[in-house]
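Supplementary Methods S3. Complex input for the pyridoxal-5'-phosphate-bound model.
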Amino acid sequence: MKTAQRLGNLGTETSFRVAQDAAEWKARGNEVYPFHLGDLNFPMAPHIVEAMDKAIRDGKTGYCPGPGIPELRAALADDIGKRRGVTIDPAEVVVTTGGKPVITKFLQVVMDPGDGVLYPSPGFPIYESQIEYLGGNALPYRYVPTADGFAIDLDHLRASIDDKTVAIIYNDLQNPISAESTEAEREAIAAIAQEFDLWVLSDEAYFEMRYKGRSKSIAALEGMRERTVILYTFSKKFAMTGSRLGCAVAPREIAEVMSTLNTNDESCTTHYVQWAGIAALQGPQDEVGRMLEVLRKRRDATCSIINSIPGMSVAVPGSTFYVFPDVTEAMEAKGIATLSEFSTEALHNTGVSFCTREHFGRRQDWEDRSYIRLAYSGIGENDITEGLGKLR
Ligand code: PLP
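Predicted complex, serialized as structure tokens:
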């Protein structure tokens, strides 16, 4: 029996494979320091747990509307709108099972086979996977290192656009490299989107994972609301990665199709989890602040040890919970030629487990430096110090 040809185009999040290698290494009795997954070792806040529990006890366990329960859509419209300085109608909000489905549904709605979509590389690997799986032309745009992080290579991005290009995926507060746009960079992306009449998927998964100042959304710039779909998720901010709750904020006609896709794909997002989402948005926010404070200390510990290792360097990021050090010279000094060899050596000799540049987009053609990604969201400060001490 045959299977679909398009399966050959399906990628994945290979960080889950790294997690599996680390788990196997640990099962053999070895110490493992987990820096590989962007998951959080923080509990859900008690009032969110209580709200979910109460919703189950109150019988909120049956089907509910495909685009989400009206109470949650209203709460999301209010919270997302206020934090971004835009007005959002609840009809523009479509609740989803986490942020990830917004990527696929966005592409399903705006892209035909053969159309081009720009996306960051290195970047969240599902962009590339889904563009190619759905028959689109994946157009990676790249970053260049700067004194304090990374910037989008706007000339390269612009040069990749042709008359078949329909959208840009833009992930400010970026995974894996923690890049943040300056005002000028965000405005330049918006200007390009308007000049070439492109849709924008603004992946705002880390919008509130910022250590000082306030994030800004490209959707708030003039002329952008009507061409932007915001990806929002409860996963990171509220440590709810396994609860699977997020939403798209989209122009009404796009929201309506996304809602029909929900009905086709999963009927609805888990009913009682949506009530927990309302509690998360409207309840006390102290846990978010406490978590960010702990994460900030972990970031500082991670960066300071990495920068003390000969041949490794990283700028201290202002957001997300990833660092993306350049390890080119460290690899050369050890005579290690490939990133996969480097990460295996690190795991087997020190127990430190991490992803590398190779896990964030198949196209490597623009890059001559070697980077690894350390996620400090799932490992305590003592283990950071101990593990990275061994790596040093
Ligand atoms: N977008 C980016 C940039 C991410 O890093 C992630 C998760 O790591 C997601 C989207 C998906 O988040 P969720 O767990 O809510 O599906």
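The mean pLDDT is 96. The chain has two domains: 5-43+286-391, 63-282.
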